[in-house]
What does this fold into?
Amino acid sequence: MGYEIYDMYLEYGKDTDSPAVSCHGDGMILEMYASGGFEQFLQEHPVNVRIDDCGDRDLTKVFDENPHGAQFLGEYARKYGMKAIVISYKSREDYENGYRHTYGSGGVMEFGIWDDGLYINSYGVFKGDDQKLHRFELQQVDGLIFGCIDKKQGDDLMIRPGARQWMDLGETKGEPASLVYSVDRDEMGEVTIFIPVRQYGRFCSVFIQHFNGDQWRQYEPNKGVTKDKEYVFVTYHGIPDSHFDLAVFGGGS
It folds into this structure.
């Protein structure tokens, strides 16, 4: 990789050709690894790989400046069935606060990684002929942090506090505890919003309203809590598009 990594995870599929397969679980293969033959071992046994560092690296640039690692992963993804994800966390503390560390397991490389956008600078995925290098963009407005995959120069998200009123569609009661935040984005994709617990309480309710099927709709998305209990978060998945309103309603601490 050309730099120090913090953690590496390798996962193999079950060896169905093994006569002793009944005693082997998923992730186990028949052959024992012999020191010094790592590249040959990777060529003979397709593997899911996760590589983590805590160096706050922009992998979209690092792999251009030192391309050997990217070339190696790309070649083994194309030729030998490797599936790999490389993740650069902003710090050791951010790594520990990461919401999940199961990326790469089961060959699912990046699903849900937007939940960790607060802690990750960038990541790369190598699978078959595909190579994707992404970094996260964060914008803070009134204590709320809006995060998405960074696609272009400048701010990908246009966030307008108080631009619209919360509509009375029968889904919520009372007035929001926050302003209504209108979010617009040219690109499709997930937008994760981190809401400070200190400001709104851990049990606050978060609602989204958006225009879909020729009418306005409101719903309460699934809510998570960061490991340090500093933020609750929700994700808008860009369905049907990347324009929506968000409001926080009162809860408890």
User: Anything to note?
Assistant: DSSP finds five helices and 14 strands in the chain.
